[in-house]
Structure formats: C-alpha cells, structure tokens
C-alpha cells in the first residue's frame, strides 16, 4: 500500500510542528515532491551513501532529524551538497527533517530519553522563545549510583563513547537531560537542582563549570543522545500508515575502518 508523501508529513507535523522550531533551524521539507510512498527511510543525517542506499532499495521518502540545509545555497555545482541535491531530485526522492520541532515536542527527543531512563515527575529545563519546553529534569528512583547509571547506558543505549566530569561521587536524586547539543544549558541544570546532567557536545570549559558546581556531567555522542527518538518516530508513523520503514541508528559520519 502506498500513501502520499504530503499526508505522511502532515501526520509528522502533528507531533513536531515546524512553527515551534528554533529561529536558526530549518525543520520542514528539504526536498519536496508529492510522490506516492510505500517505503520510508529514517536516519539522523543524510549523506550521498545513504541516498544511494535509498535509491537502491526504492525508498521514496527520507525523514532525517538534522536538516540538509541550514544556510542558503547560491548555486548547484559539483560539490558534495550539490551532488546530494541532484541525486535526490533526479530520482524523485523527497526529504523531510524534524529537528528542533521534534526536540521540543511533548513526545519528542527529550521525552523519549526521559522515559528510557525511567525518570519521574518531568519538568521543563528551559522555555524556548517559541514558548515550548526544551530539555527535562526528573526524579531518579532507579539508579543507586553513577556507576549503575553508566552501566545502564552502556548496555541499553549502546553508547559508542562517553565522558564523565564532576567533583564528587554523590547520591543521584535528580537527573537533567537535553538530547543533542545541550552544553549551553549546564547552568540551567545546576539552577534546577540536578545532580547529573546528560547531554552531548561538551567542551573543556563546560566541564569546568560542572566541576566547580559539583554537577556530574555525562557527555555522550550527539548521535547516541537522539537515536532512540528515531525509533519512536518510526513507531509513531506506523500507528497510522501501513508502510515499510527502515530506521538507521548509526552515525553517518563515522569513518569505517578495515
């Protein structure tokens, strides 16, 4: 059975409305075409390799978390991005991205991670300019130590790498989190009384702030912090559409070594 691409996207936008995206973001259609869709590919980021995979396996719609475009393109030539555009357009493959619109959704990236950690009593970490909450903080009743939490992440989230910063080992009463790049909100985690803050893309001086404020800061990869939401998106679409969906959870930019 096939469905119109615009109908599938309309359903996604009930979950992740583009009007709530951050001002710098570009959630929404990247390559729009009202094609009939019977196969959907979901991934974090789009590359030529993944476009070739979609073409070979006859996917008509690609849904990404991170947009193809963040800034304007003045011309299409022979650079990498131009090759992506031409390959998609020539083969009538459309692309839609739900980025910060999905981050701030009540059932989006951060809520999926919150539920995965079995936290309770969710509270927004910050309020964005659009009036939506970004990030969550909640009460921990499951992990008795930082080591137990880390082992859970290793075994169940299958994190490929992580770093832990902090000044002291302590009880974990509250855990704050932002999937993706959330280092800019370390102070918000501190102000909200978090004992642990889980996020990505932490820099040296971010770790210093956490250390000075006795906050345990867990820095996992950007991809790992958001990949559960891709699986959730797949399940959400399948609730309405009887359609084949493949979800890629690996990092598209990792160098494949022999």
TrEMBL record:
A divalent metal cation binds at residues 65-66, 103, 222, 226. One of its GO terms (cellular component) is cytoplasm. Pfam families: DUF34_NIF3 (PF01784). The keyword Aminoacyl-tRNA synthetase does not apply. InterPro entries: DUF34/NIF3, DUF34/NIF3_sf. Keywords: Metal-binding. One of its GO terms (molecular function) is metal ion binding. Belongs to the GTP cyclohydrolase I type 2/NIF3 family. This is GTP cyclohydrolase 1 type 2 homolog. It comes from Peptoniphilus indolicus ATCC 29427.
């Amino acid at each position: 059975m096939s469905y119109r691409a615009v109908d599938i996207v309309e359903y996604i936008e009930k979950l992740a409305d583009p009007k709530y995206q951050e001002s710098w973001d570009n959630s929404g259609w990247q390559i729009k075409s009202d094609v009939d869709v019977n196969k959907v590919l979901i991934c974090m980021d789009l590359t030529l390799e993944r476009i070739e995979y979609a073409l070979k396996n006859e996917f008509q719609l690609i849904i990404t978390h991170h947009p193809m475009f963040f800034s304007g393109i003045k011309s299409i030539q022979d650079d990498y991005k131009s090759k992506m555009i031409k390959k998609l357009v020539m083969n009538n493959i459309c692309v839609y991205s739900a980025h910060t619109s999905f981050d701030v959704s009540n059932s989006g990236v951060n809520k999926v991670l919150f539920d995965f950690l079995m936290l309770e009593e969710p509270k927004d970490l910050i309020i964005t300019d659009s009036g939506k909450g970004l990030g969550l903080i909640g009460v921990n009743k499951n992990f008795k130590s930082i080591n137990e939490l880390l082992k859970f992440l290793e075994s169940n989230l299958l994190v490929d790498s992580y770093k832990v910063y902090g000044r002291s080992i302590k009880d974990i009463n509250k855990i704050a989190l932002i999937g993706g790049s959330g280092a800019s909100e370390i102070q918000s985690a501190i102000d909200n009384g978090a004992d642990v803050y889980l996020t990505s893309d932490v820099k040296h001086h971010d770790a210093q702030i956490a250390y000075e404020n006795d906050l345990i800061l867990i820095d996992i990869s950007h991809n790992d912090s958001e990949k559960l939401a891709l699986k959730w998106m797949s399940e959400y679409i399948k609730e309405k559409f009887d359609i084949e969906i493949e979800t890629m959870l690996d990092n598209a930019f990792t160098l494949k070594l022999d």
